[in-house]
Design goal:
Elements: H1 4-31, H2 38-59, H3 69-90, H4 96-113, H5 121-126, H6 136-142, E1 152-156, E2 166-170, E3 180-186, H7 193-196, H8 201-207, E4 210-214, H9 230-243, E5 246-256, H10 258-267, E6 276-280, H11 286-290, E7 301-307, H12 315-327, E8 331-337, H13 349-356
Parallel strand pairs: 3-4, 3-5, 5-6, 6-7, 7-8
Antiparallel strand pairs: 1-2, 2-4
Helix pairs in contact: 1-2, 1-3, 2-3, 3-4
Amino acid sequence: MPSEDDLLLDAITDLAPKLLNTMEAFEQVQRNMHPSRLETLAEFIVPFERELRDSFSTIEAMEFPEDISALGKRLINGATYSLRACDGITNRSGDNFATMKAMRAQCRAQEFIYPLASVMKPVSQYFLEPDARENKQLLDDLNQDRPEQQVGILNARNERDSRGGFTLYVPEYLDTNESASLVIVLHGGTGHGADFLWSWLREARTRGFILMAPTSQQDTWSLMGEEHDLDPLLATLDFVKQQCNVDEEHILLTGMSDGATYCLLAGLNKNSPFTHLAPFSGVLHPEIQMFGRMQYARDRNIYLVHGTLDWMFPIETAYMAQSELLDAGANLTFRAVEDLSHAYCRAENPNLITWFNPKLEVPKSG
C-alpha cells in the first residue's frame, strides 16, 4: 500500500502539469478575448478547468510535511487562482467585469508559482519562450545561487492595494557588470504593474534584459487633467539606472491601452530618455498635437500595434496615428494585427524585441 509521502508525490506530479497546461491555455483565451467570443472561449477552457479541478480536489485536503509546505502552498494557491480565472470565463460568460478579474487572477497564479521555477523544471520551462525550453545551459544558469546579487523579481512598494510603486525583474543569470537593455511596460486602465509584468517576464527571462513594470499613481495614467506620473516614472528610471548597468541606447517604453496612450504622451518630450516607444492598442493623445510635441516624433523609433477588431479604440484611430507620426518624421513600424480585439498581443513581443535590439536573441540550445 502506498505511503502518505508516495500519495503526496503522486498528487504533486499530477497537479503541476495540469496547472501549467491550464495556464498555457488561458493565454490563448486572453489573446482571443472579444465580447462576441466569450461563449466559444468558455467551451475551449472547460476541459482544462475540469482536469485541473479534479487534480486540485485530490491534493487540497492533503497535509504537506514541513520541508515542502512552502512548495505545497504555492502550488495550491497557483491552482486556486488559475481556477478562479477559468471560472471568470466559464461561469460568467458575457460579464466583462468578471473577464477582467479572470485575467488578474491568472496573473496571481503565475506570481504564486514563479518561485517554484528554481526547484521544478516544468515551471522553469513554462516561464521561458518555447524555443528555449530545452536549453539545458539556460535552465542551469537560471538556477545558480547568487545571494550577493539583487536578481529575480524585486518589488518596490508595489503591493496590489497600493499605487505608484514598481516591480523590477533582473534575470537570475545576468552579469550586472555588463550593460543590459531595459524594457518598461505600462499597464492599462485600472491595471497594476505587478500584473502586467507577466506579459513580458518570459521574454526577459529568456533573452536577458531588465524588465520594469511601474504602477500608475492613480487608477490609470495621467491622460486627463494634472500630470501625476511623468516625474515619478523618470525618477524610477533613474533609480533603476543606479542599481543596474542599463544600456542607455536601448530603453524601450511600451504599454497597453491607457498605458499605450501614455507611452506616447510620456515619450514624445524633449530630452526623453526612452530610445524606443511601442504603444499597443492605444490612441495618439490630442495634447501631443495641441502643445506642439509632435515635433519630438521626428527620427523617433516607434512600433505601433493595433488589432483590427479592437472594440474600444477602433483600428481607424491607429491609421490616423500612423499617418500623423509618419508626417512628423517618425521611424515608424506599424502592425495591424488581424483578428485581434482590445487585448494585449503577446505574440508580437518577439518581433518587437528584434526591432528594439536585434542582439536580444533566444539563446541557442545548449
